[in-house]
Design brief:
Helices cover 34% and strands 25% of the residues. It contains ten helices and ten strands. The chain has a seven-stranded antiparallel β-sheet with strand order 7-4-6-5-9-10-8. Strand 1 and strand 2 form a beta hairpin. The protein is globular, with a radius of gyration of 21 Å. The mean pLDDT is 93.
Length: 315
């Protein structure tokens, strides 16, 4: 992002960039939610289209095949640093009875994709006697990101769901991949395990308002709970408690890790640390400068502790 235009609570229409209102520019790049003003336009730096190759893998698990499932999950997690270092990202979905992986490498050709993924596909095939059935293991080249996007199946929307997330540091993945595999399988977690490209770690953590946890993170781990329309509040609360429990268990492996603000729990015990880290105090100063009347309120956002859950001002 190179520039924003913003309407503040006083009615001013500002241009925020590295040269104009640089403090606001710093905050808007990852500082969390619409808490500083109303963004009316954004100027992006764009890049030429590049080809990419995708890897699609899926396996199903027979009942009582936790040993094979754990090996499948743990080996995938162990390979995460190498996958990221090769410039790939991916979404792994674990639901207790299956594992689906969608990975893609921008600029990667078919030969590079096969060299990266064939060993894992072959490893998964050796687990057949332990209850793991490989259903799909293919790499496919595309001429552009948009061609890949058009080939994706549509995703249903409009259901009741809540999420929680944790950004897992690379050091933790390298050290604790077996603990994560055990946790996911033994606790029968329904999670999305997303590997991130290594480029984020090459950026100075102080260059934007984004929580520094992003700069050391290799994985964004999402916990999702869904309930049917009309479910009683007791059922909804039970599912919210499930998210809290999973966050607590992950924190035991990766203490002090942060969370992705756009895929986050509304019930964090320490939202300042989890969402903003060491940047919170500076973000609060900027918030007060451009929104002195605290007009813009975001749940668990910067300055949100000045309001109660019913949005009544505490100060």
């Amino acid at each position: 992002m190179l520039q924003f235009t913003v309407v503040t609570s006083s009615g001013a229409h500002l241009t925020a960039s590295a040269h104009s209102h640089p403090d606001l520019f710093w905050a808007l790049r990852g500082g969390g939610g619409g808490t500083y003003g109303i963004v009316t336009s954004v100027t992006y730096k764009s890049y030429p289209e590049m080809p990419l190759t995708s890897n699609l893998f899926s396996a199903s698990i027979t009942p009582n095949a936790s040993s094979g499932y754990k090996k499948l999950v743990t080996e995938y997690i162990r390979l995460n640093p190498a996958i990221s270092d090769a410039g790939w990202v991916g979404y792994g979905l674990f639901d207790g009875i299956s594992f689906t992986l969608l990975g893609f490498g921008v600029g990667a050709d078919q030969a590079q994709a096969r060299a990266l993924w064939d060993p894992y596909h072959a490893f998964a095939a050796t687990l057949a006697e332990e209850g793991v059935q490989v259903n799909l293991a293919i790499t496919t080249p595309y001429s552009s990101w948009y061609d890949w996007y058009k080939a994706l199946p549509s995703v249903p929307a409009g259901y009741n769901t809540e999420v929680g997330s944790r950004l897992l540091p690379r050091s933790s993945i390298e050290r604790d991949y077996e603990r994560y595999g055990n946790l996911i399988v033994d606790r029968n977690f329904n999670v999305t395990w997303s590997i991130m490209a290594g480029a984020a770690a090459q950026v100075d953590p102080e260059s934007t308002g984004l929580t520094p946890a992003w700069r050391s993170a290799l994985v964004n781990l999402d916990f999702t709970e869904v309930w049917p329309e009309g479910a009683p509040i007791s059922e909804i609360q039970r599912r919210r408690d499930n998210i809290k429990t999973r966050i607590r268990l992950v924190e035991e492996i990766a203490p002090g890790s942060g969370s992705y603000f756009n895929e986050a729990s509304l019930y964090e015990d320490d939202p300042k640390r989890v969402f903003f880290g060491s940047h919170y105090d500076r973000l609060k100063v900027i918030k007060d400068r451009y929104d002195p009347l605290a007009m813009f309120v975001v749940a668990e956002g910067v300055g949100s502790d000045q309001w109660d859950v019913d949005l009544n001002c505490r100060v």
